[in-house]
Amino acid sequence: MLRLADGTRPCLKVVNDQVGNPTSTKAVSDALQQILMHPELVGTVHLTCEGEATWYDFARKIFEIKRINQEVIPCTSDEYPTPAKRPKNSRLDKLALRECGIHQMPFWEDSLREFLLS
Q1: By the 8 A CB rule, do 36 and 2 touch?
Q2: How sure is the predictor about 100, in pLDDT bands with cuts at 50, 70 and 90?
Q3: Residue 43 belongs to a domain with what CATH number?
Protein backbone atom coordinates (compact mmCIF):
# COMPACT_ATOMS: atom_id res chain seq x y z
CA MET A 1 0.00 0.00 0.00
CA LEU A 2 2.78 2.43 0.87
CA ARG A 3 4.41 1.84 -2.49
CA LEU A 4 1.11 2.46 -4.27
CA ALA A 5 0.64 5.77 -2.44
CA ASP A 6 3.57 7.33 -4.31
CA GLY A 7 1.57 10.33 -5.49
CA THR A 8 0.98 9.03 -9.02
CA ARG A 9 -2.55 7.78 -8.32
CA PRO A 10 -5.32 10.14 -7.23
CA CYS A 11 -7.18 7.23 -5.65
CA LEU A 12 -6.74 3.55 -4.90
CA LYS A 13 -9.53 1.01 -5.23
CA VAL A 14 -9.31 -1.61 -2.49
CA VAL A 15 -11.53 -4.64 -1.94
CA ASN A 16 -14.11 -4.16 0.80
CA ASP A 17 -15.91 -7.52 0.78
CA GLN A 18 -13.13 -9.82 2.02
CA VAL A 19 -12.70 -9.98 5.80
CA GLY A 20 -9.73 -11.36 7.69
CA ASN A 21 -7.48 -10.92 10.73
CA PRO A 22 -4.44 -8.88 9.68
CA THR A 23 -1.45 -10.27 11.55
CA SER A 24 2.18 -9.27 11.90
CA THR A 25 5.09 -11.69 11.93
CA LYS A 26 6.13 -10.24 15.31
CA ALA A 27 2.75 -11.16 16.80
CA VAL A 28 3.13 -14.70 15.44
CA SER A 29 6.70 -14.94 16.72
CA ASP A 30 5.69 -13.79 20.20
CA ALA A 31 2.85 -16.35 20.30
CA LEU A 32 5.13 -19.13 19.05
CA GLN A 33 7.44 -18.52 21.99
CA GLN A 34 4.51 -19.14 24.34
CA ILE A 35 3.35 -22.20 22.40
CA LEU A 36 6.79 -23.79 22.80
CA MET A 37 6.17 -23.79 26.57
CA HIS A 38 2.97 -25.83 26.09
CA PRO A 39 3.91 -29.31 24.80
CA GLU A 40 0.32 -30.42 25.43
CA LEU A 41 -0.82 -28.13 22.64
CA VAL A 42 -1.02 -30.27 19.52
CA GLY A 43 -2.80 -29.98 16.22
CA THR A 44 -3.71 -26.89 14.27
CA VAL A 45 -3.26 -23.61 16.12
CA HIS A 46 -4.32 -20.35 14.52
CA LEU A 47 -2.17 -17.32 15.30
CA THR A 48 -3.98 -14.27 14.04
CA CYS A 49 -4.34 -10.89 15.65
CA GLU A 50 -7.55 -9.95 17.40
CA GLY A 51 -10.15 -8.00 15.49
CA GLU A 52 -11.08 -8.13 11.87
CA ALA A 53 -10.78 -5.90 8.84
CA THR A 54 -11.41 -5.83 5.14
CA TRP A 55 -8.53 -5.02 2.80
CA TYR A 56 -10.12 -1.57 2.49
CA ASP A 57 -10.06 -1.10 6.30
CA PHE A 58 -6.46 -2.29 6.37
CA ALA A 59 -5.35 0.13 3.64
CA ARG A 60 -7.08 3.09 5.28
CA LYS A 61 -5.47 2.27 8.63
CA ILE A 62 -2.01 2.11 7.00
CA PHE A 63 -2.45 5.58 5.53
CA GLU A 64 -3.91 6.93 8.78
CA ILE A 65 -0.96 5.66 10.85
CA LYS A 66 1.61 6.93 8.35
CA ARG A 67 -0.31 10.22 7.96
CA ILE A 68 -0.50 9.83 4.20
CA ASN A 69 -3.26 11.71 2.43
CA GLN A 70 -4.32 9.02 -0.05
CA GLU A 71 -7.90 8.61 -1.22
CA VAL A 72 -9.04 5.01 -0.90
CA ILE A 73 -12.24 3.86 -2.58
CA PRO A 74 -13.95 0.61 -1.60
CA CYS A 75 -14.74 -1.88 -4.33
CA THR A 76 -16.03 -5.43 -4.58
CA SER A 77 -13.97 -8.49 -5.42
CA ASP A 78 -15.79 -8.64 -8.74
CA GLU A 79 -14.54 -5.14 -9.55
CA TYR A 80 -10.95 -6.15 -8.76
CA PRO A 81 -10.36 -9.53 -10.37
CA THR A 82 -7.21 -11.48 -9.54
CA PRO A 83 -5.85 -14.77 -10.92
CA ALA A 84 -6.30 -16.39 -7.49
CA LYS A 85 -9.81 -16.53 -6.05
CA ARG A 86 -9.81 -15.06 -2.53
CA PRO A 87 -12.24 -16.11 0.22
CA LYS A 88 -14.81 -13.62 1.46
CA ASN A 89 -14.09 -14.71 5.03
CA SER A 90 -10.57 -15.69 6.05
CA ARG A 91 -11.01 -15.02 9.77
CA LEU A 92 -9.55 -17.73 11.99
CA ASP A 93 -10.62 -18.84 15.46
CA LYS A 94 -8.02 -19.08 18.23
CA LEU A 95 -9.81 -21.61 20.44
CA ALA A 96 -6.65 -23.71 20.94
CA LEU A 97 -4.82 -20.71 22.38
CA ARG A 98 -7.66 -19.86 24.74
CA GLU A 99 -7.96 -23.45 25.94
CA CYS A 100 -4.24 -23.48 26.81
CA GLY A 101 -4.46 -20.19 28.65
CA ILE A 102 -2.10 -18.47 26.25
CA HIS A 103 -2.56 -14.74 26.36
CA GLN A 104 -4.69 -13.02 23.81
CA MET A 105 -3.04 -12.06 20.53
CA PRO A 106 -2.63 -8.30 20.06
CA PHE A 107 -5.22 -6.33 18.14
CA TRP A 108 -4.33 -5.95 14.49
CA GLU A 109 -4.33 -2.13 14.66
CA ASP A 110 -1.76 -2.18 17.47
CA SER A 111 0.47 -4.65 15.62
CA LEU A 112 0.21 -2.63 12.43
CA ARG A 113 1.08 0.59 14.26
CA GLU A 114 4.10 -1.07 15.90
CA PHE A 115 5.27 -2.43 12.52
CA LEU A 116 4.84 0.84 10.63
CA LEU A 117 6.38 3.07 13.28
CA SER A 118 9.35 0.94 14.27
Answers
A1: no
A2: confident
A3: 3.90.25.10
